[in-house]
Amino acid sequence: MVMSLVISLPLILVIVTAGVDGQQYWAVNYSPSYVCALKQSTVKLSCALNYPHDHELTRAFWTKTAVTDGDPPNLCLDPEKRGRVQCDSEDKDTYRITLTNVTKADKHIYYCRFTTDRGRWTGIPGAQLDVTDLQVETQQSVKEGDSVTLTCKSSCSLPQQTTFIWFRKRQRLTRGIITENQLQLQSVSRQDSGNYQCAVSGYQHLKSPPVYLQVRWDDGLQDWGVNYSHSYVCALKGSTVKLSCTLKYPSGCKIETVFWTKPAVTDGELPSLCLVPKKRGRVQCVSEYKDTYRITLTHVTEADKHIYCCRFTTNTTAGKWTGVPGAQLDVTDLQVETQQSVKERDSVTLTCKRQLLSASTNNIHLVQKHTEINYRNHHKESASAAVSQSSRFRKLSVCCFRISASEVSTCLSSSTM
Questions:
Q1: Any signal peptide, and if so, which residues (predicted)?
Q2: Are strands 351-354 and 255-261 parallel, antiparallel or unpaired?
Q3: What pLDDT is stored for residue 354 in this prediction?
Q4: Nearest to 293 by CA among 311, 313, 307
Q5: pLDDT of residue 11
Q6: Does the global pTM surpass 0.70?
Q7: Ordered domains of the chain (ranges, CATH)
Q8: What CA–CA distance (Å, rounded) separates 141 from 214?
């Protein structure tokens, strides 16, 4: 008699899922993801594409529009950028965009968009390009024997390995101690007076505007000066900005002229911003009260991003003064950042980002008090919402600042899924 032993084992079924629509196979990696570039320099951005292995890539291009459906404009086919923008393939699935002679208008987030024979993808959050020029900040006047620190400032964070170069009267300086972006001059003499400029190694031709340092034997400098209502203002594009300056001068002097100007130099006669024809109707200069003068700029743009200085002259021969380092105006717009795709019932965080200078919080003055508001499909959105079935349609996400009860400034919108 043959006996058989049958052992029943539980059946274990292992299911490996690839997520909703296999989205982990779709991605774009940027190198670098953030660039702070000098105005008029050359910038290169690369993107590496990921997609399912059984798909065939049919098209890849760079764009500034963050959409997940439709066909956004191809930057390399933009007639306005012809000759200044070049796109090429570095190797398989890696694509590069090169922008030459960059300007503040190129300051944006750049996205790689690609399609396969069975799908398409936009690489969000993209690669961000910031464009800056250089500015020298220092005391306006010092006495012989003093120590002086000059700082080369940029509106975004240049790479840590950046080497700064200093010039006086357009000649490269051989004296002084250079530490990162600062030049320290010990025990200055009147021979150290002159226009100072800074530049970055490799871009010596892209110097900062000159700033005049005056070294005097005169001991009465404490009688001269300019105080600004705000040394730094971050304003939303399209808003109105008001800057005030209060003058200080010896009691025996009489004010002859006062005006606002942009070049921070103390020799020669400088242009008055209120007399510039291009700014007529958008810039207003008034005297608030004795020795206090205000400039008002309406509908500000990135072209208004600058350092503004008060310049005044008196009835004495040497009685001229420019209030250095001045009041700095930064102009920003807003961007929405979020995940490109999520699963139903997930929680989603949308961030309303604004681009500010790398300044300490104490120096930042946002125009009046502000409140961030989010919109979806042009309707005010609640603070948080779960993703529902209807969220599968494309949405237009917008963030804005409420400047006052009667005024709202909105940002550039981003389309999200």
A1: 1-22
A2: unpaired
A3: 66
A4: 311
A5: 42
A6: no
A7: 21-131 (2.60.40.10), 133-219 (2.60.40.10), 221-332 (2.60.40.10), 334-416 (2.60.40)
A8: 5
